[in-house]
Amino acid sequence: xxxxTGVFQFESAPMKEYLKKLKPTSLSDxxxxxxxxxxxxxxxxxxxxDRKYGRKEAAFLHPVxxxxxxxxxxxxxxQEQVIQIANKVAGMSLAEADxxxxxxxxxxxxxxxxxxVIFIEGAVxxxxxxxxxxxxxxxxxxxANYGFNKSHSVAYSYIAYQTAYLKAHYTPEFLAANLTNxxxxxxxxxxxxxxxxxxxIEILPPDVNNPSVDFDVDEAGRIRFGMSAIKNVGKNAVExxxxxxxxxxxxxxxxxxxxxxxxxxxVNKRTVESLVLAGAFDSTNNYRARIFKVxxxxxxxxxxxxNSKLSVENSLFGGIQEEVKISExxxxxxxxxxxxxxxxxxxxxxxxYITGHPLSKYEIDHKSFATISLGETEQLEEVEVVKxxxxxxxxxxxxxxxxxxxxxxxLDDFSGSCEALMFSDSYKQYGKYIKEEECVFIVGRPESSGxxxxxxxxxxxxxxxxxxxxxxxxxxxxxxxxxxxxKIKDLKKIFDKNKGNIPVYIxxxxxxxxxxxxxxxxxxVNVSNEFIDExxxxxxEDSFILFNKR
Length: 550
Description:
45% of the residues lie in helices and 18% in strands.
């Protein structure tokens, strides 16, 4: 399935695609893929896969090569194979064969001429035709440009197997551990959060009533966001919350109850504000806008209650254990934040969207039109033009030498973020789209800036506008095993409500096995937000309408 985020050496997007084709069945497969996935030998990966599944024959230049190259289907993959070939074909000692390998690796032309003579003479002595010997020499010479050490590759692949095993059998725990371990790397964390979403593992916000320093897994297999990962919330503050919660032996009932019991010298105002914005008080059954409004009041209230208790304990009659009763203030009657504001504030203190993502409503568009994931910097290095959907954050504008406005901002998608810049000509035309937390579709070019890669934005439009420009047709997958006749009737109602100009193609399947494809010639739809929402609700997230790209 290519679900190898977090699996050592197998995390990149192109590698995932190769693994889906390879469907590895052994450590040997993993080792070969590890060795082949580098500049040069990558050209042989598809050939390797075709030979594994018998679509191509494993060819050997001479029968003597078969025992050496059988494991890799006739393709030279490892340095050790070069040494074995030189030993078996040309009769070289292992030490002599290693001299040949090193000469090839260093591209030492003078040494290579001498080594070629030795190799061919030795091969002829072993009754191998001179032409065949020359072909074999050229094959291993070509390999030397990319050869990888098998012992390294197997060692890496063994670690990959171990991490893959942990991910397959202890998925939430594995991902929670990786989230904790990688928290300083924003794009890595974003990739793991996206992986959780794809694997349908729920990410819960931090919670003062279930406090933990690091990312944790609850009994239902959900991952709880680690409190120490919140801005302004250090390990000491989290440990104070844990200690207080344990001493109370009950949940905090409100922010006032919380501030009454914790040591507010450790859990200060900035800490409490960040906890509220991150959703850590959601379990007290009130929305964040109301709670955030009273943070200062709650701290004052908590201080008064604590001082009152202290004064009773220190009084002459402290032993009587007088009960201190101060009425808890009421929360203000104000409306909740919009989802957009709630998620923006959540991201402000955690660096990420936890309880949702602004792009979620445009997930179909992202899948259909984006040519790249913004968090995959490796991919950005390999393309000339970038098309993607993203959320704009952290905007900075300045004037260029001519006094015209240009912009710098961050673009976020499900995989992570990327820095973007827009020069004045583009800003003049598309600046109206550059707003905080705005979901947009961009076209641009990657631009190297030291160690970082930025996208030079050439064109911006709303996602809805991009849908109009790029949609050629709608593809719908109907599966007999998932979709009842009733749901298919519902589809007709949706089509009737959303008539337009875009043709519809349907793929039929039976429990995942493809049956046939056909088009509804008379049917044309309008791919509005309402149409997409209704289709998602009717078919489910996994049975998607996909838009073909123009």
